[in-house]
Structure formats: C-alpha cells, structure tokens
Amino acid sequence: IIESTPPGTRFPLGSARDPDIGENALQNYELTPNPLFSLLVRESPDGTKHAELVLEKILDREKQGNHHLILTAVDGGDPIRSGTAQIKINVTDANDNPPVFTKEIYTVRLMENMPEGSLAFQVKATDNDEGTNAEIAYSFSDTAKSIRQLFTLDPRTGDVKVTGLLDYEERKYYEVSVEGKDGGGLTAHAKVHIDIIDVNDHAPTISLLPVLNPVPEDSVPSTVVAVINVRDKDSGENGEVSCKMDGNLPFRLETTSENTYKLILASALDRENLVLAKALDREEAAFHELVLRAMDGGDPARTGTARIRVTVLDANDNVPVFSQAEYTVRVPEDVPVGSTLVTVTATDADEGVNGHVKYS
C-alpha cells in the first residue's frame, strides 16, 4: 500500500471456506486490533461472507514501513473452531517529505589564498523518503554569475570547491543560496555566508613627494626635504606599517600622522661633540642616497623599499685659500718693468661662481 493512500480505501482479503453447514459453517471474521486498519465483512447474495481491510488513518512509511495483522475466521459450532491467515502490509514510499538541510544558514570562513580546486565547504540535506524520492541534487539558486565563477557545487555530494581567485582586498564577503531537490521534485533551500579572511599577501608601498630637492647645504636642521606616505592593502596587523631609514645619514623621519612621515634634516655635532654644526656639506658629499624601508605587522612580515637621492646645493661657505700663507720673492734691482715676479694661487672649495677667485 502506498503511504499516500487516502483513508477509507478498501482492500479485499478473499474468503475463508468451511465444509460444514448451518451454524457449523463460517459465521464471521475478526482482525487484530489496530488503529490504522479495520475490518469490513460483506455478505454475497449466496450467503458467502467476504472480508475487506479498510484504511482508517493516513499511513506514514517513515514512521512504520511494515504492519503485521492476523485475520481470524470463526464458525458457529460448539466448540467454536477457527482458522487464521497473516496479513503482511508493506507501506511503499510516496514523495511526501521534502529535503531538509542540516543548517538553514551555513557560515564559512575562507583564507583568501586558498588554492583553486580546493574544497571550501560542504552543504548537506537529508530526505526521509526512499529510493529516487530521497536522492537529492544540489545547485546554486539566486546566485550572481561572478560568484559562480569563484565556486562550483557538486550536484551529487554538495561539495563546494574554489575555482577562482579570492581577494580580500576586492571583496570581503559573499552570500550564496543553495537548493536541494529530491527525485520527486520537492525542494529545500539554505543560505551560505562566506567570510574571506585576509592574509599578508601585499607588501607595503612607499610614495614620495619631494618638497626641497636639491637641498642648499646651509639649510637649517628640521628643514623638510620630502613627505613620505606608506600604504598596505592588507587589513589588521597585516596592514599596520612602520617606516625606517637605513644608514647613518644627516636625515631623520618624523611621523606626522598615520602612515605619513616627513623627511627632515637632522642636527649634527662637530667632531668634538661640543657645538651644533651644519647637517650638510656639499664639499664632503654632493648627494646622499637614502633607502627607506616599510615593514608591516604580518607573520611573516613583508617589506617594501624606496630610494631617494638628495642632491646638495652649494652655498658660499668656503673662503679662498692661498697655496701659501706667505710668499718670499728675491728680485734683482735691475729687473725690467713688466716682468713677472711671482705667481700666487688661491683655491675655493665651493662650486660655480662661489668657487671663482679674483685677486687684488
């Protein structure tokens, strides 16, 4: 009997036979007491009694798939004699149960560097029916094409694999709808919330805005040479960046705001460490090569570098210097007028017009 059979349906059970006659012949049928079935006895015009099984309530194969009853035929003799027959009822499945997902909402966290082809998560639904009525096919529903390019769903197993490049910096969250349909056409739906987790896949970047380059060598300490901006596309600790400068140079970095620095001239001490001296000296170094390093807080940390060449502009800070402090010349008294007596030479460490020497 299929479980969708409506109550009131009758099932003929056939007739018992008794060779006796009169009161000793078949008089009635009896059925094992059961809440789902009752017995109806019908009598033919020739006096033959027939038993029919009547369904009283809806059957549910998922609760009970088999029923065992005993039909008893009794006569009217003294003593009463009876015969029995077993009634074995197999309840066959009807597609009266839709699929049910194990969760209404699945919450999934995926690392953005998940390799393509790897298993991201699995959805699972069950169906209390049997056979094809319990076979569930999975599919995406109400899901954008762009998401379908990133994830594929196995219609048989419910496995969802990554088939595209996940990028936290591009998109941090996805929501997909999954449908499960059984062989009889009944469906169930579930939502999947996918959070993309950031990994430290970006190195910091450094951008420079020159303010004063070349820099006059007589510039005072704290003169701003450049503004430096540091950025990292990652988030959290992966995006927290600090910046440092390599080497012992006459410059230092000063933080102005988050991820922004000023490159300024540092103060310098003379060799005796007694008084402040100028930071730059073109005559010692006409330019400085600076290496800036930005490091994020990831584990392992990633580093970005940038180079800046600072040219030192000459100032007239050097006096001419004679090759000798004193020249002694012996001149004969009869030397002709116009004769060259001595040549004096002076040099100036500055460049350009600052280094041109005139004599008087």
UniProtKB/TrEMBL annotation:
Q: Which residues form the Cadherin domain?
A: 1-101, 102-206, 215-322, 323-360
Coarse class of the protein's main subcellular location: membrane
> Where does the protein end up?
Membrane
Task: For this UniProt record, give its keywords in alphabetical order, as a comma-separated list.
Answer: Calcium, Cell adhesion, Glycoprotein, Membrane, Repeat, Transmembrane, Transmembrane helix
What are the protein's GO molecular function terms?
calcium ion binding
GO:BP terms for this protein?
homophilic cell adhesion via plasma membrane adhesion molecules
The record, for PROSITE patterns, names: CADHERIN_1, CADHERIN_2
Q: How does this chain sit within the bilayer? A: Single-pass membrane protein
One Pfam family name is Cadherin
Q: What Gene3D superfamilies does UniProt report for this protein, alphabetically?
A: Cadherins
* An annotated GO cellular component: plasma membrane
PANTHER family hit by this protein: CADHERIN-87A (PTHR24028), PROTOCADHERIN GAMMA-B3-RELATED (PTHR24028:SF73)
Name the UniProt record assigns to this protein? PCDGD protein
